[in-house]
Amino acid sequence: MNETGETGEFDGTGGFDETALRRDLAELLAGAGVLDVDIDDAIADEHVRSSAYRRVALATAASRSRERDRAVVAAILRDPDEMASKTAVVALVDGIAREATGPAEFRRWSARLLPETGRLRTGAYREFIRRRVHDWLFRLSVEDGHVPARAELAEVTDWMQRCLAEKSTSPAVLALLAESGSTRKIRNIAEDRARKRGTATR
Q1: Alpha helices in the chain (DSSP H)
Q2: Between these two residues, 108 and 2, which has the higher pLDDT value?
Q3: How far is it, in rounded angstroms, from Cα 112 to Cα 174?
Q4: Residue 119: DSSP 8-state
Q5: Taking the CA atoms of the chain, what radius of gyration do you get in angstroms?
Q6: Confidence band for 9, pLDDT divided at 50, 70 and 90
Q7: Residue 43, class by beta-carbon neighbours within 10 Å (0-12 exposed, 13-18 middle, 19+ buried)?
Q8: pTM for the whole structure
Q9: CA atoms within 13 A on the CB side of 117
Q10: Are strands 16-17 and 9-10 parallel, antiparallel or unpaired?
């Protein structure tokens, strides 16, 4: 919904094109096999639409084919509700990253998708998606055996540092987080897990 309370996709003249938004929604939902969303409800209510986009993102991430991913992202990002668009794209990024076989595969995938974020007028949202991709590349490289330097860790968000503190099984990574994590909580979690893992292996 825009500032005047209207819904619809930008038509390039400062207004909104509800027909285009309806078409995008119908194609996204059908392509993802999400058949229980009322299009009229989704057009009228950005919360319904946001939920629908997240379901589309999750279904897309679960698909074995990556051929439609860029078109899905482009359609979602045409929605005038940029918060809903950003949230759905982040859900897709998370889903793809969790299934990636390694950093190289995810880097190739994200390189094709990131140009689409230029559709977002809000710079903070573009940056959020970019940082999310960077976080996952960092995590996947760590899972692939890379031991990061302190400077590399400093470029990762608190969210990803905490994820690693809670889930990493690498003694070197836990030691780095315990010493250089961005918050006291992250450092304490990493230190506690490193200590417990050390006790368990004695």
Answers
A1: 18-32, 39-44, 46-62, 69-77, 82-99, 103-113, 123-143, 150-154, 158-167, 171-180, 184-200
A2: 108
A3: 32
A4: G
A5: 20
A6: very low
A7: middle
A8: 0.86
A9: 25
A10: antiparallel
